[in-house]
Design a protein that fits this description.
This protein has 203 residues and is an alpha+beta fold. The chain has five helices and eight strands.
């Protein structure tokens, strides 16, 4: 996926992490803690991604929908819609109450404000959430999917999610703000895509 990530050589990240941890022993600072958490992941050889920046930079289709989508990794499909100047990704069942979706619901609680291009209007759309293969999960340390997010390129938004799945996702875990850790990246095989294509909409 052609999306900009934050990377750094592991040794440099470890050195910067030590400096921030030393300072945190002297005083508590929320920004220092967030930066230290980021350096800790970079020191493990992982990349970081600012999802809000990625969504702002990504191209849009003819109906002004973003070519990127994000959803909780345990979901089977995602609905995109636009409300009050924000791109929203979630389950159809919560579309009419997106602003007060219950905690733990399938609607992505973090919403990303992405300005529309010009005066063009946007339309709702659906896409399948790519499955996470076992080897990707194992490489990520077997995190619970309910605590992870999947970010991927949408080739074509649909009226319903009955279409061939998209190929190249990222598995993410929230770090803070709009910053996420990239736990894994993969290409779905033709077999995985064929099985996913037989999914029935969940709503």
């Amino acid at each position: 996926m052609d999306t900009q990530t934050i990377t750094m050589p592991a040794e440099e990240a470890k050195e910067r992490l030590r400096a921030y941890r030393k300072q945190l022993h002297r005083k508590a600072d929320a920004e220092y803690e967030a930066i230290a958490a980021g350096y800790e992941e970079l020191a493990k050889g992982r990349a970081l991604i600012d999802v809000e920046v990625a969504l702002q930079a990504c191209p849009r289709d003819a109906k002004n929908r973003p070519r990127l989508a994000i959803a909780r990794s345990d979901r089977r499909e995602v609905r995109y819609w636009r409300r009050n100047g924000e791109d929203v990704f979630g389950a159809d069942a919560f579309a009419s109450a997106w602003s007060n979706a219950p905690r733990g619901s399938s609607t992505l609680r973090r919403r990303f404000r992405v300005p529309l291009q010009g005066t063009a209007q946007t339309e709702d759309g659906y896409a399948m959430v790519p499955l996470v293969p076992p080897d990707v999960l194992e490489g990520a340390g077997n995190p619970a999917l309910v605590k992870c997010f999947t970010l991927w390129e949408v080739e074509q938004w649909q009226e319903r999610a009955r279409t061939l799945p998209d190929r190249d996702p990222f598995l993410l875990q929230h770090l803070g703000g709009s910053l996420y850790v990239v736990l894994g990246e993969w290409d779905l095989t033709d077999l995985e895509r064929a099985v996913m294509a037989s999914r029935r909409p969940t709503s």
